[in-house]
Amino acid sequence: MKRFLTLGTIVILSVMFWNCKSDQKTIDSQMDTVIAVHDELMPKMTQIGVLRQKLLDAIPDSLVTQEQQKVMLDLKESNASMMQWMKDFGADFDFEEIAQGKPLSKEKMDLLDKYQASVNALKEQMLSSLQNGQQVFDDLKQ
Predict the structure, then answer these.
(1) DSSP assignment of 33-58, as one string?
(2) What is the rounded radius of gyration, in angstroms, for the C-alpha atoms of the chain?
(3) Apex CA 96: angle with CA 92 and CA 98, to 5°?
(4) What is the pLDDT of residue 22?
(5) What is the C-alpha to C-alpha distance for residues 53 and 45, in angstroms, rounded to an integer?
(6) Terminal-to-terminal C-alpha distance of the chain
């Protein structure tokens, strides 16, 4: 009977340990996904700045249309949104949590879910503003 109790305890502890490891791998994977989107967007910041400047240089202030003004504002806001996202993310997660797989509390896991949604929305915002800005610039060249 003692052997079954000991064996049962070992099995239960092993399953609990495995589940904890599995949960941590999921969190690490989610953090990696968030960081991957961030890393994908970083070069877009430069593209946004260059494109916005090209538009500013190509359109005299007196001739800018509402559409062009909106596109340039969207580019500026996309860049500012990315800067704010990075500032907030860096304030909420430390280096060990981001890069070294430090376990996250329940609150931090919930926060990571929110950051994953927000970085995906940010990606859509940045890509859309770049596409619209490029279209306006291309139309100016014609």
Answers:
(1) HHHHHHHHHHHHHHHHHHHHHHHHHH
(2) 23
(3) 60
(4) 45
(5) 12
(6) 87
